[in-house]
Write a structure and sequence with these properties.
Layout lengths: L21 E9 L18 E3 L4 E3 L5 E6 L5 E4 L5 E3 L4 E3 L6 E3 L2 E5 L5 E7 L9 H14 L3 E5 L11 H15 L6 E4 L10 H4 L11 H7 L4 E5 L2 E5 L3 E4 L2 E4 L3 H13 L5 E5 L23 E4 L2 E4 L6 H8 L3 E7 L6 E5 L6 E5 L7 E3 L2 E3 L2 E8 L2 E2 L3 E4 L2
Parallel strand pairs: 1-8, 1-9, 10-11, 11-12, 14-17, 17-20, 20-22
Antiparallel strand pairs: 1-4, 2-3, 2-5, 5-7, 6-9, 10-25, 13-14, 15-16, 18-19, 21-22, 23-24, 25-26, 25-27
Helix pairs in contact: 2-4, 5-6
């Protein structure tokens, strides 16, 4: 499918943002008859956050929202409000070239429960040869009946160093499998979702429309977003960026600006849970053997500094935005092992948890790191420390 292409090594990081104004509007409403259309007897829902990953607005008393989307990232999404469930996808694609777009978001009323559970899984690395692993996750999850599942990156085997044909087949396989879950699946990208950036192996040109982060966005929509459930504000963060050929942990400036807006709208007492692939901080990663060679070197030079690439190099910038809120839990993957620790600071201490890999057990020296996921319980607006569940 691909022809051999010449390529030049240049600095690459965030995808370019094209300024093109689109007038976006719509309604958020309770869809009583489940037909996906707002009928006359169906009321709007106010104060719901709507965003295009740059601008954030809230709905009025009639559930109406409207804004100018000037960056044309390609979609609009709803931050699911407490007490409701979004019916269908939480995001809608804005077709290229349109100057106006209407997107309504039908909701159903969430069941009233004294406590609910959710699953944090990661590193599914799906491929035809390993699809049974995500199927085992689904079977185990179905027996636990969680409200939803978070999958924090490295969803597919590899898009870094393969052709478009191979990468798209893996994305399509992942979509097919998560659509079989009986509850919502919230995904966030990992380093393996970056398409073609190891150009010496992928032979993909940097001008390809799906290059880098764009393939994830094409298949799975927003690569950072938020939603609410059980009195908790969940924020999915894309903690992976790239410098020329190599990925590293970093949250770009556009996303930081959006995060500041998102957090400013919620009540400061509302517990916040972040989930992303490369962790903000990690104790377990210190157990890895130091290596200079690529792929997977320990250090990388980016933005004029040499940094440890397997944690978020500007984690302090993220923490400074969250410090005045109740950032109770930071979830991540990448390490392929379960670990938990707390950093004491001003206000409520943040718990930093990483979960194991769904793809299978990993070997670290003579230590076997088992495969599994973590089940959390929300009760009275608080989240427990989770229970690790082995996946054989």
């Amino acid at each position: 499918m691909h022809q051999l292409r010449l390529f030049v090594f240049i600095f690459l990081s965030c995808s370019p943002i094209i300024s093109f104004a689109v007038s976006v509007k719509g309604y958020v409403f309770v869809d009583k008859n489940a037909n996906g259309i707002r009928d006359k007897n169906e009321s709007g829902v106010k104060d719901v956050m709507i965003s295009d990953q740059v601008t954030i607005v809230t709905t009025n008393a009639d559930g109406f929202y409207q804004f100018e989307s000037t960056h044309n990232l390609g979609y609009v999404f709803i931050s699911q409000p407490n007490g409701f469930i979004v019916k269908g996808l939480f995001w809608k694609r804005i077709p290229k070239g349109q100057s106006e777009f209407t997107g309504d978001f039908p909701l159903s009323i969430a069941p009233t429960l004294s406590k609910v559970t959710f699953i944090h899984a990661s590193d599914t690395h799906i491929s035809e040869s390993s699809v049974d692993r995500i199927q085992k996750l689904r079977e185990k999850a179905d027996s636990l009946k969680p409200a939803f599942i978070l999958i924090s990156g490295d969803l597919i085997k590899d898009a870094l160093r393969v052709s478009e044909k191979e990468a798209t087949s893996l994305y399509e396989l992942y979509l097919a499998e998560i659509n079989k879950f009986s509850f919502p699946v919230y995904s966030i990208p990992g380093n393996h979702e970056l398409f073609g950036i190891e150009r010496h192996s992928s032979l993909v040109n940097s001008t390809h429309p799906l290059y880098g982060k764009e393939m994830y966005r094409h298949y799975l929509g927003p690569d950072y977003y938020s939603f609410n459930y059980g009195g908790i504000h969940f924020v999915g963060i894309n903690s992976v960026d790239y410098n020329d050929l190599w990925y590293y942990g970093f949250v770009d400036s556009l996303q930081l600006t959006w995060l500041k807006k998102d957090i400013s709208i919620i009540n400061k007492s509302t517990p916040v849970v972040t989930f992303n692939h490369i962790p903000f901080y990690s104790g377990g990663l210190s157990m890895w053997t130091y290596r200079d060679e690529e792929p997977g070197s320990t250090l990388i030079s980016a933005n004029g500094e040499k940094t440890f690439r397997h944690i978020v190099s500007n984690a302090d910038a993220v923490m400074s935005i969250l410090k005045n809120n109740s950032h109770t839990l930071a979830l991540a993957g990448h390490y392929h092992a379960s670990q938990q620790f707390t950093i004491e600071g001003v206000g409520q201490p943040t718990r930093f948890h990483q979960t194991a890999a769904i793809i299978g057990a990993s070997q670290l020296g003579t230590t076997v790191l088992p495969s599994g996921f973590t089940l959390y319980t929300i009760e009275k607006g608080k989240i427990d420390n989770g229970k690790f569940i082995l996946l054989k």
